[in-house]
User: Fold this.
Amino acid sequence: MKIKAGNLSFWIFIGLIAGIVAGIYAHYTLWAQIDTTAYGSGIIKSIKDFVGHEVRGFRLLSDIFLSLVKVIVAPLVFSLLLVGLAKTGNFGAMGRIGIKTLAYFTFATLIALTMGLVIVNLFEPGKSLDVSTAAEKIVATQSFDVVNFVLHVFPKNIIEAMSKNDILPIIVFTLFFAAGAAAIGEKGKIVIDFFDAVAHIMLKVTGYVMYFAPLAVFGAVASVIAVHGVGVLLGYVKLILCFFGGLAAFLFIVLPLIGMFARIEYWKLLKYIREPMLLAFGTSSSEAAMPKTINALERFGCPDRIIGFVLPLGYSFNLDGSIMYMTFATVSIAQAYGLDLTIGQQLTMMLMLLVTSKGMAGVPRASLVVIAGMLDAFHIPAEGLSVIIAIDWLLDMGRSATNVAGNAVATAIVAKWENALGQPGIENEK
Assistant:
């Protein structure tokens, strides 16, 4: 990939490098002197105070970013999920195609969520980060209680739930709200159109907030290295390898198996979508590759009516790479703080993400918003988000490319189920 100035990934990369340099300077020229200096206690206290101010200054940048992310979680989830449910309501009119599409999306989402959990529990990449401190370890996960969980699901006050970013109560309220809007017909459509506009506004706001990501990365990396030293960076290597290994397994094992059972030529399809996948990888946006993906699917033999229905829905309902990342990143952050999530908690997280991931458009780094909500829901320190955003730009490239492949496979499978998949080749280009 050629990283160009003006590209957000470029500036996040610059923020990462600058944060490493600043953190090394603070740690090895200042922090290290706390234990090795031969001067008096007054000098040592001055060094501690100076480094403390440096670390707090670094941390302030990432804390501001975290606050901006948190404030958009509730309105973004509510508006996107509501609009997504409204789109699902159209499946009744589409009949058979809609049911098959929704069934496959749910199946693929469960596989992606499960793979994320299996990989993160098997290799435990978050433990190699080990950014926990004695104070942070006071924060502990709560035991899973069915009664408390059920009571928590149903909100007493939706405003309070939104103010606390309680995702499950927001989901339940949205389900009832969507059902009520559908029941009143045309008047409800006015409301849905309004929240469709809100959803687009919140996505635009999310894009604006992400422009602060380079400063947040700088502050997060610098503060961590200033305290723990450059050795903490070695943990990122394992995290990156584990996640990209998971994406590779999904692309070259899971999707081929799905294609084999669905009787589609997956490897030939992969050749057709190679260019849009590279475009998504380079721009960190699967939506940027959508026009080329449409063209590739037409050449593969998918009819326009199937592509026009399945593919757009896929960009809200079937982001396999992003969905895998949500469970992987959330549990990795918990591991970094020395917190062990129970099987019950992880299954609950998977079910929550099964719903909250629907409607999350394929914009760069939008997954961070959902992860922030998961951290709050499971009492994981929100500061962990600052740690993972340092490499999120790289992970986003991989998951965006995977999203393209997942949606292409979904479209081809639905076309196959409808006996509408033609033969790949030039004759299908028009």
In short: Residues 111 and 146 are 25 Å apart (CA to CA).
